[in-house]
Amino acid sequence: MKFTRLLVALFGAVTLSQAAHAAYPEKPVRIVVPYAPGGAVDVVARKIAQKLTEQTKQSFFVENRAGATGTIGTNFVARAPADGYTLLAIDNTYSVLPYVFKNLPWNHATGLVPITVSMFAPVVAVVPGDSQFKDLPSLVAHARANPKKLTYGSGGNGSAPHFTGEAFQLVTGTDLMHVPYKGAGEAMTGLISGQIDMIFVSTPSAGSHVKGGKARALAISGTARSTSLPAVPTFAEAGLQNFNIMNWSGLAAPAGTPDAVVNFLHSEVKKALASPDVKEFLENMGGQAGGMAPADFARLIKDETSRWEEVARKANIERQ
């Protein structure tokens, strides 16, 4: 009898839990962007939040918690209740964090549950609109002949563009001077104003400046040219066969978030990405819709994290 009552109690608890998850979301859902407003991660997160609000009839809103290469906002989410009401707008910077910091306040491998990728975006090598360099081979040749003379900017030490710049130097055999800014937006402003010679950014960050003539794109990652910047050759076409870095951004939740909630969010984001307005939005940014399953996204993060270990070691990047 005791065993039967225990089974009934357990079954009742499971049923109540399933019912609670089935009702999700019952209150507003916060999406934490661990960077300042205006960047590609922030802009895409706001578009996805808008669509999820429309689809679920419940408010999804973005909250910026910037600082320390995204670790302030990420730690906030990792420590939040695992109920699906606090999410993280995650991007490829997450993969380099173990090589930037000696100690992270959460477990990098298990502290978050990946939900899905919202957007993939190629990386573009960009110089000022009035730069002497008209193509990538001429820039590489000049950089090889003049070590430490050319500068490249990034959104800060340990940011994804910083690691991309280090990877570029390893592939090309060049020695550039890194100039860290407080954010990707400031770095782009520095490029346009002539403070730095080049920058590695995603197509969403570079597109409008290139089309407006304030910046010149020398090469773009990917196996084919971007429809948003069709005149820009791929890195392979420009002579770099082994440089194919792709930016991505998506959503994650605190570890322990119920599978039912994670799967629901994956399904809703995938639905949003298939809508005509979001497709057009991403294409205009030079991006490509994601939508991969949570398990596949987790594998992507693991593979990317392993990939950057070699770059950090060869570039002698010191952890803080």
- Under CATH at level 1, the class of the largest domain stands as Alpha Beta
Q: Please tally the β strands and state the result.
A: 10
CA-CA gap between termini: 60 Å
User: Structural class of the secondary elements?
Assistant: alpha/beta
Overall mean pLDDT stands at: 91
Percent strand equals 15-25%
Give the full name of the CATH homologous superfamily of the largest domain.
Bordetella uptake gene, domain 1
Low-confidence stretches: 6-10, 12-20
Report the biggest beta sheet as strand number plus sense, adding barrel if it closes.
Answer: 10 strands, mixed
Total number of helices: 10
Helix content: 40-55%
Write down the domain tally. 2
Shape: globular
CATH fold annotation of the largest domain: D-Maltodextrin-Binding Protein, domain 2
Rg over CA atoms, rounded to whole Å, is 21 Å
SSE pattern, N- to C-terminal: HEHEHEEHEHEHEHEEHHEH
- Label the CATH architecture of the largest domain: 3-Layer(aba) Sandwich
Provide an overview of this structure.
The longest helix has 21 residues, at 2-22. This protein is 41% helix and 20% strand. The radius of gyration is 21 Å and the shape is globular. Helix 2 crosses helix 8 (259-273) and helix 5 packs across helix 10. The protein has two domains: 29-117 and 246-314, D-Maltodextrin-Binding Protein, domain 2 (3-Layer(aba) Sandwich); 121-220, D-Maltodextrin-Binding Protein, domain 2 (3-Layer(aba) Sandwich). Strand 5, helix 5 (160-172) and strand 6 (177-180) form a beta-alpha-beta unit. Strands 1, 2, 3, 4, 5, 6, 7, 8, 9 and 10 form a ten-stranded mixed sheet that branches. It contains ten helices and ten strands. Mean pLDDT is 91; it is low at 6-10 and 12-20. It is of the alpha/beta class and 320 residues long.
